[in-house]
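Q: Structure tokens for this one, please.
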Amino acid sequence: MLNLIETKFRPVIEILSEGFVICTVERSDDRTVTDFVYQYCNSAFIEMAKIEDKNCLPGRKMSDVTPGFLNSDLFDTCRNSAHHNQPAFLYSSYIKEAVIGREIDGYFDIKITVSSGQLVIILHDVTSVKKSELQLKKVADDLEEERNLLKDLLEENKRVTDALEKSEEDFRLLFENSFDAIFVMEIDGRINRCNSAAEKLFGYSEEELLRIGRPGFADKTDPRWPVALKERSETGKFIGVLNYIHKNGTVIPGETSSQIFRMNDGTLRISTVVRDVTGRIEAERMIQKASKQLQENQKRFERAEALANVGSWELNVKTGEMELSDEFISILGLESGTSKITLSDYFKIVHPEDRERLMQMSSSYHKEGRPLDIEYKIVRPDGQIRFIHGISDSFNEKGHKENIRYGAAMDITESKLQQIELLKTLEALERSNRDLEQFAYVASHDLQEPLRMVSTYSTMLQRKFNNDLDDKTKQYMSILIESSKRMNSLIQGLLDFSRINSAKQEFNAVDLNVLISDVLKDLSVLIMESKAEIKIDKLP
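A: Here is the predicted structure, written as tokens:
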């Protein structure tokens, strides 16, 4: 689960203003929840807890980080939620705890959920809102007290007056200390009063705001303004986001709550509260951008799969359900839109010759947690046989009940067929070489006998008639005998060559000068007829 958050949602979670915490549940032998262990927390939570080192939390117990946690209402709620496996909510819960030596002091809306044995806590800081509510409640209480005093003690006119003045002061404090910009306006947009937050938000002084009125800082190019004014005029109120212009020209998106009310004298006024939502708008924009980028990356991945002729799949080992990519569906020859099949149905597609081997290896490698790399054949629905090179590996996230196996498959049919054709060619070539060797052996053996006769009778003639021959004839006889010897050497060399692949050969050093001399003798007639001139340097 944490890896999924890291790869898919972390950029979004990190920019949220809510604190986001994931913990594992620690239980005793009798399954009683005893504590929780931090696994992940986003930047907003780190800022809420005023922790300097974000990496100091994962792996630590909440009771170690926050000593008073086990005695808190938050622990009781988390424990009950984990025990009953049900979500829980704490609204405007006041938290004042020491976290790693620093103190959290504020009000939070807390949502607690349980997923896959882990506890997810989301904290929304409502301190400012709660404090405003408390202030309003205090003011309301004061007003109620004043109403009772007026009813019961009409004669204490001065005391009532003092109480009203105090109440007015409380309203003034609330008005001035609000984090949101507050305006009291005339129906036509003229401003009667504004607080300091309005000055800070729009960059104008109170005098400037009173002078320019609402038209002076409302974004006239925002098409939502006419709609908002019409809605407020017809219904008496408007709530929505409108654009405003800062004194420096910056556009400020403001969440606007505007309402018409009637004064005691019957005149109509408008109260408007504006909250800067630049951060929220930017977060939404980043989420949209991230979503668009994710879609583009998915399209690139699908195009890459198609170009490489590689498909991918994801198997839920527990359910036996396989989710197939579009390219893998195409490789298998299945109908477009068949995004999911069962593992048993997939094995039916595998060629019978390879089915049992693939099933055994897949099961064995998965149990051992090893990646699988295998080649096998499939039979498409149309009967066509395709060769597949498949790889897969398991993913079992800590604390995650489901075991997932991911894989990729490449259609290697063309290369496999070429490989088979090449093997056939090599086998034919090997047979041809064996036939050639046999022929060379037989030919050299058969040629030796008549050559031996030529050499023998030439030698006998030389010996018998040597004294009766003239010098020229003797020279011819010597050449004939020498050529016979050379021919015998060549035939013997051919015989040795035919045995190169069948017998181990010993290699010896050869004097190239002697070798060249023998070659020149063999080619002497050709050299003489062509009147060639051979130049040879000293050779090794």
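A few notes: The mean pLDDT is 79. The radius of gyration is 48 Å.
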